[in-house]
Amino acid sequence: MWIDTHAHLDAAELDAQRAAVLQRAARAGVRCVVIPAVEPANFAAVRELAHAHGHAYALGVHPLYVPRLRREDLGLLREELQRRLDDPRLVAVGEIGLDHLVARQPGERDEQAWWLERQLELAAEFALPVLLHVRRAQDAVAAALRRRAWGARERGGIAHAFNGSEQQARAFLAQGLCLGFGGTLSFEGSRNIRRLAQGLPEQALVLETDAPDMAPQWIAHGAEPRPNEPSELPRIGAVLAGLRGWTPQHAATVTAANAMRALPRLRALLGGEGTVPARA
Q1: Could you give the residue ranges of the DSSP H alpha helices within 59-153?
Q2: Domain residues of the chain, as ranges?
Q3: Is 229:14 a contact under the CB 8 Å cutoff?
């Protein structure tokens, strides 16, 4: 069983082919896709997609969407989390975090940090794990988790698209998080990411596509550029298996188990026969 822990299935790039994308994922053996929100405007879209197609979702404000919101809009997230808390398909608060590649000015970074801190508070209040965006901000996000004693309370979550040092990786593992790896693994030039995927404890690893982004090598260098999609996950998993000396089946088993540990509500969704119910 393959679990895609991060894919923006509501993205406009997939509008024309969303049904086909979902069908291809199912045929490829991707049993569950976690669809993160990025702002209040798409809360309904990710929830409806998850329910319509038997997947899971997260609610949060992405750091790159912070400039278009007011701090008072945090209340919209809190209200939606409270309203949907009993929804078994709501598995995390996310996508939240920091992006220091884009936010370079102190004021921009301060505003992202405010939203991260407040959303960590909400995740703690509602006892939900987090899906974290940590681009060029690994140390700052890890520090925010330490301030909240995240690991001590076993709240868990995933540091999505991780690309830090081994020391930074282990700082996230110490806080009880898993690390998300995707299409970047497929590039031989991605030496740091491949080294981490190869050398970290197997309990640290989950897989994601970040569809429609983070295209693997065979899409990025293909004859006809196209969006990334969850059906690519088994092939990404095979790359991980090759790096670790595993079979693809073992990669699927390990990363799915890690995903269910990082996002415990997935275990209930994938219980029994290991299938996700069509509707909640």
Answers
A1: 74-84, 106-125, 138-147
A2: 2-269
A3: yes
What are the φ/ψ torsions at residue 215 (nearest 5 degrees)? -60, 140
The rounded mean pLDDT for the chain is 95
Please state whether the peptide bond connecting residue 227 to the residue before it is cis, i.e. omega within 30 degrees of 0. no
3-class DSSP assignment, residue 215: coil
* Tokens standing for residue 139: 């140390």
CA distance 137 to 145: 12
Specify the pLDDT at position 273.
Answer: 38
CA pair distance 77, 119, nearest whole angstrom: 9
In tens, the pLDDT along 191-226 reads 999 999 999 999 999 999 999 999 999 999 998 889
Alpha-carbon distance 208 to 158, whole Å?
10
In 3-state terms, what secondary structure has residue 120?
helix
Max Cα distance, the chain (Å): 50
Rounded CA separation 53/269 (Å): 13
Cα-Cα-Cα-Cα dihedral of 58, 167, 252, 250, to 10°? -160
* pLDDT per position as a tens digit, 239-266: 999 999 999 999 999 999 999 999 999 9
Candidates 108, 274, 254, 279; CA nearest to 181 is 254
Q: Which CATH number fits domain 2-269: 3.50.30.40, 3.20.20.140, 3.40.50.150, 3.90.180.10?
A: 3.20.20.140
